[in-house]
Automatic annotation (TrEMBL):
Transmembrane segments: none
Listed name of the protein: Exported protein
Highest classification ranks of the organism: Bacteria, Pseudomonadati, Pseudomonadota, Gammaproteobacteria, Oceanospirillales
Signal sequence segment: 1-21
Gene3D superfamilies linked to this entry: Bacterial extracellular solute-binding protein, family 7
Family: Belongs to the bacterial solute-binding protein 7 family.
Species this chain originates from: Marinobacterium zhoushanense
Cited InterPro entries: DctP_fam (IPR018389), TRAP_DctP (IPR004682), TRAP_DctP_sf (IPR038404)
CDD domains the UniProt entry points to: PBP2_TRAP_Siap_TeaA_like
Amino acid sequence: MKIRTVLAASLATLISVGAYAEPIKVRVASHVSEYSPLKQQYDLFTAEVEKRLPGQFDFRFYPSGQIGNESALITNVKAGSIEMIAVASGVMKLDKKLGIFDLPWLFDSREHVRKAMSGPFGDAVKQRVEDKANVKVVGIYENGSRHILNKVRPVNTIDDLAGMKIRVSGGKFRSKVFSDLGVLPQKVAWKETFTALQTGVVDGAEAATYGFYEQKQHEVGGYLSLTSHVYTPSFLLASNSFWDSLNDEQKKVFTEVGQEITGATYDAAADLEKGYLAEMSKQIEVNDVDLKPFQDATRATHDEYLEEFGTEWMDMINAAR
């Protein structure tokens, strides 16, 4: 009886401790604001994890570079000093082969992106990031297609870009693309771009739709041309030290949820872009663009990449068309 009593008391204590255990605090930091698709992705991921593992985690989102810029966040998650991050083009700088996402008109449409990223190409990118950064890739989603906003004229032809000073981010391939189109690429900090556009330091900028909207660049630029010249994925990354601290069930849920929300994140990003375009079109002229001449003029950039890194990844992308 005494042994049974002790065992029963011990079991009751364990149940009590488990029921009132403190949730695991998880900081998820991003360099972009709550206007971005990355905030939607955070919401979708954390809501689903909470459904499946109620009360086990206390997720906190830190947008707009509150904990550091994109480069610093990637450094910190690699070092294990932050649990999770939601980032985008900074991941391309981890490895030159990932610069494939800086190539112009790599994908035909959002549907093409979805097919490519859900197949062998997406698997290869995930593995490359994990190998190069020593992190866990929980999910790969969408940061958005990039367009051109400027205060000079609508961009309908390549000649319309000639001599324009455009704020360009990304790596060497993206800068080369704009140079090939007659643009004078400018390096300006993103937070300074509104003022640079307002004062004429630059004539325009290239960015995702939410970037223009959150900075209110449509209030100082007259034209937004939907060039979709670059598609940038977003990445939900976890540090290996945080990942290793999870139990098997938690790892399983994180992995399953990270994959299962992918379709919803693309749909949400599309709706978000549609809404921002509708709002900005009240103050700015928005135009579609015949892209074939632009694609033909920048084909050499693709050739340069293929010469350096081979055709394996490009073949996977083309197979998904």
